[in-house]
Amino acid sequence: MTNAAKPATRPANxxxxxxxxxxxxxxSPEALSNALVGRSHRSKPGKQRLLRxxxxxxxxxxxxxxxxxxxxxxxxxxxxxxxxxxxxxxRGVEMLAWxxxxxxxxxxxxxxxxxxxxxxxxxxxxxxxxxxxxxFSRDVVFTxxxxxxxxxxxxxxxxxxxxxxxxxxxxxxxxxxxxLDWAKLDVxxxxxxxxxxxxxxxxxxxxxPRAVERLETYTPAWPLPKVFRMTKxxxxxxxxxxxxxxxxxxxxxxxxxxxxxxxxxxxxGLDGLVARADANTGVIADWVAKTxxxxxxxxxxxxxxxxxxxxxxxxxxxxxxxxEEQAAFAKKIVALLDAEGVAFDIAYYRDAPxxxxxxxxxxxxxxxxxxxxxxxxxxxxxxxxxxxQAA
Length: 391
Known about the structure:
Blueprint: H1 44-61, E1 68-73, H2 75-87, E2 93-97, H3 100-112, E3 118-122, E4 139-143, E5 145-146, E6 151-152, E7 167-170, E8 187-191, E9 202-207, H4 209-217, E10 231-232, E11 235-236, H5 251-266, H6 269-289, E12 294-296, E13 308-313, H7 316-319, H8 323-340, E14 355-359, H9 366-390
Parallel strand pairs: 2-3, 2-4, 4-7, 7-8
Antiparallel strand pairs: 1-9, 5-6, 8-9, 10-11, 12-13, 13-14
Helix pairs in contact: 1-5, 6-9, 8-9
C-alpha cells in the first residue's frame, strides 16, 4: 500500500451512482411529507398530482403541445418495451447500438419480437456508428446517451425532418441534462431515477403525433399484455396521457418526482440543469487533461456524455494487462474509495471495458466532483502500489 497522504477534503455527498442517482441537493424525507399515501391514485387529488407531474415535465423539457406524455410502469425499460412491442413491425427497423442498453433493445427485436426486416448497426464502446448512413425509410431505435459507454449523439441534425419511419429514442440518462431535438423524435422515454435523482420503477413515455398515428393505424401481429396497451377500439387511450396510469403508481414516488421538478425550476429549468451537468463534467475533463493514467472512454469530445462519465485506463502497466486483471484493478480502486466513504457505486458497467463510471448529472454538486478527483489519484496510486507489492 502506498504511503501517499489521503486528501484533506471529502465530497459532502459521496453518491456518484449512475442509477438510482444522487438526490437533489438538501433533499430529505421531509420533502415527501405531503405525499398522497393511503389515497387512490384515481381519486381527484391523485389524478391532479399525476397531471401536475406531466404538466411540469412538459414545461421544463420544452415538449411541444401536441406531444403526449404518459407515466408508465417498469421505469425506462417498461417505457421502451411499450414502444417496441406496440409500434414495430409496420415497416423495417434499424437498431443502433453502441452500449449495453442499446444491445438490449437489439435482443428484444431480434430474439423476442423476431422481426424479419431488422437491420442491426453497431459500434464499439467509446464510439458511435456512422449516423449519416442510417436508413430513415425504416423505424430507427437508439439511445440518445449511452449510460454504460458515456457516449451520446451530439445533436439531432443527423435525423431528417422528412423521415418516413419513426424515431424511438431511449433518453433515460439524457433527459434534463441534454437538450433533445423534439422535432426529430417520435418516441422518447426516460425514468425518474436518473438526472433528477427521483425514485425508481416509474417510466415516462412521450409520443409525437406521428407516433400516435402509428398506434391508431397499426395493430401488431403479436398479443400485447395489459401494461403495454395504449389504444382502445383503435384510438389512443388519452387517459394514460392525463395521469390515468395503466397500473398503480407509488404516490410517494410521484411526490418525490414533483419535488425534483420543483427543484429543477428553482435552478433555472432545463438551461440550469444542463449547465450544472456540464460544470460537473468539466471538472472531470480538467482532471483527465492533467492525469496520465486515465482518459474518457468516448473517443470524440463532441460525443462525450455530461451525465454518465465513463473512463478507461491509459497507464500502459494497466492497459496492457488482460481484461480480467484490468477489471480487478478497477474493482480495487472502487473498493478503496467505498471504504473511505468518498465515492459510492463508481464501478464500470459489467459489459463495458474496465474503468470507472462517475455520474455527473444535475443533482451532483461540482464541489463534490472537485473534491473527488484527488481521491481518485490516491486510490489509483494505492492500488498500483499494492499491485507492485504482489508482483
